[in-house]
Amino acid sequence: MAAAALGAGCAQGGDPPGVRGAAGQQPLQAPPARALDSYASKLRAAQTARAAAARRWKLAAVPLAAPPPPAEKPRITAREGFEVDGQEELPPVFTTVPTEERVVFLTIDDGAEKDPAFLRMMSELKVPYTVFLTDKEIKDDYGYFTGMRDAGVALNNHTLTHPYLPALSYAEQRREICGMQDVIEKRYGTRPALFRPPYGNYNRDTLRAARSCGIRYAPIWNEEVYVDHWEYREWDQDLHPGDIVLTHFRGRGDWDGTMTDLARRFLDRVTAEGYAVARLEDYL
C-alpha cells in the first residue's frame, strides 16, 4: 500500500507534505532504457560498418555474425579412422567440431604470403580465423604476425620446417614441434595448444611428441579453399556445421589471385549457404 501511495503521489506530480522524494529516484527509471538504446545503437553502427566493409571489399553480401561462443564446450574426440594406439591419452585429430550451429572455422597455414590488405580486410569485416605457422615461412617478417596477434588472431604450431613428419624419428618430430612452440612463445608471448601436422600426415610418435610439447588438439580440415576452387574430404562435396576449412598464405606468385581474392571466394560461399565464420578456439 505504501508503494502504491508513493506511486500515486508521483503520478500526481508531487510528494506528500513534508516528505522529500528519494535522491535520484526519477533518474533510476531511465538508465535501463538508455542502456538498451545505447546497445542497439552500437549494434546498428557495427552492422553499418560491416556492410560498408563488405561493399568496399566487393563481397556479394555482408558476412553473417557468429553466435556467442558455447557456454559448454563440445567434447572433442579423434575422428573415426584417424585414431592411433593409445589415442585416449593423446591430442585428437579432427576435421569437424561437434555443433548444431551453422558455423564453419577458417584456418590458414604456413605464413608464406604476408599481404597487408588481407589483414585490413578481415579486421574491417570482423571475420575470425586461426593460423598455423611454420618458422621457415615467417622468419623473414615476424612483425606481420605480431599485427595479426594484436588483432586477436590465435597463432598456432605448424612445425619449424614443414617436413613429412611420419618419416622422422620421435626425437626429430619433437624437435620440429617443440622448437616451433619455443619460436611462438619467444616472438608472440604464448605457447599454443593447437598443432596441425604438415600435409595432415602424422603417426603415433607425432601425437606423442605434440603432447610432450604442450599441445592439446590437432585439428586438420574437412574442406580446402583455393582462390579458384574448393576441395572436399566428404563424398557430398558440401559444407557442414562445425567444419574446419583450410587455406594457405599464398598470393599471385603461387595462385591466380591474392589473399583478398581468396577471402572473398570463401566468404561469398559460406554466407550464401547461411553459415557464419566462428573462432575455432571458442569451441575448444
Question: What is the strand and helix layout of this fold?
Answer:
Blueprint: H1 2-11, H2 25-29, H3 31-56, E1 93-94, E2 103-110, H4 116-125, E3 130-133, H5 135-138, H6 142-150, E4 154-157, H7 170-188, H8 204-212, E5 218-219, E6 223-225, E7 230-232, E8 244-248, H9 259-272, E9 276-277
Parallel strand pairs: 1-5, 2-3, 2-8, 2-9, 3-4, 6-8
Antiparallel strand pairs: 6-7
Helix pairs in contact: 7-8
What does it look like?
The chain is built from nine helices and nine strands. The chain has helices at 2-11, 25-29, 31-56, 116-125, 135-138, 142-150, 170-188, 204-212, 259-272, and strands spanning 93-94, 103-110, 130-133, 154-157, 218-219, 223-225, 230-232, 244-248, 276-277. Strands 2, 3, 4, 6, 7, 8 and 9 form a seven-stranded mixed beta sheet that branches. A hairpin with a 4-residue loop joins β6 and β7.
Describe this structure in a few short sentences.
This protein has 284 residues and is α/β, with parallel strands linked by helices. Helices cover 37% and strands 12% of the residues.
Strand coverage percent: 5-15%
Number of strands: 9
How would a crystallographer describe the biggest sheet?
7 strands, mixed
Number of helices: 9
Into which percent range does the helicity of residues fall? Answer: 25-40%
Output mean pLDDT: 90
Topology as a string of helices (H) and strands (E):
HHHEEHEHHEHHEEEEHE
Spans of at least 5 consecutive residues whose pLDDT stays below 50 are 1-28
Quaternary state of the chains: single chain
The shape is globular
Q: Indicate the structural class.
A: alpha/beta
Query: What is the radius of gyration computed over CA atoms, rounded to a whole number of angstroms?
Result: 25 Å
Please give the alpha-carbon distance between the first and last residues. Answer: 53 Å
